[in-house]
Every structure is written in structure tokens, then in C-alpha cells.
Amino acid sequence: MRVLLDENLPRRLKDEFAADVDVVTVHERGWAGMKNGELLALAAKEFDVFVTMDAGIEYQQNLAGFPVAIIFLHAATNRLIDLKPLMPEVNSQLHSTKPYDVVHIGG
After folding, report:
1. How sure is the predictor about 63, in pLDDT bands with cuts at 50, 70 and 90?
2. Residues 61-68: what's their mean pLDDT?
């Protein structure tokens, strides 16, 4: 399972994914600063899941056009301390997601 972690999330969040998940950040991939549509198109070619806090993507893009699952995290901030409690559910959802799935975690 290959996961792309959006640039709006802390890089240290990678450590909270299950051991069998290969997580790469947008920054590591050299895609920082790209527009959402371009980023999703590239992600769909190489990754199974895209994880983000950017709720605007869902309204700005036609997600049905990108064969990658998207997990939206909803927390008070994008600080690691606020995101860590969501990670057990993220890890649980990863293994059941399919291309084109849109999953919201947290609230």
C-alpha cells in the first residue's frame, strides 16, 4: 500500500502509519506547491491513497476523475498532537479503501 501525505500535514505523521504502509510526503516527492488537480493526477499514477486536511479539494475538484482513494482528516489543527488520535482509524481504513473512495476521519 502506497500513501501520499499532503504538504498540509506534518512530516512526522509518517511514523504513525502501520509498518506495512509505504508513506511518502508531497515534499519528498518534489510536488510541493502544486495545484490540487495536478497533484491528484500525479498521485493517482503512483499511490493508492492520498491523505490530506485540505477539505477544499472535495469542492474544487471532480474527485471521480482520479483513481486514488482520498482520506480527509478533520482535527482542530494540523499539529501532530491533534492528528495522532485519528491514526488508528486511518490505519484501519487504509486496508479497506479502493480507488475513488472518499473517507472522512475526525470531526
Report:
1. confident
2. 80
Q: What is the mean pLDDT of residues 70-98?
A: 96
SS3 51: strand
Sign of CA dihedral 18, 91, 98, 78: negative
Report how far residue 91's alpha carbon sits from residue 71's, in angstroms, rounded to the nearest whole number: 11
Burial class of 63 by CB neighbour count within 10 A (0 to 12, 13 to 18, 19+): middle
Kindly tell me the sign of the dihedral angle through the C-alpha atoms of 89, 90, 96, 97: positive
Sheet holding 22-25, edge to edge: 22-25, 2-5, 49-52, 69-74, 102-106
Query: Please, what are the domains in the chain?
Result: 2-106 (3.40.50)
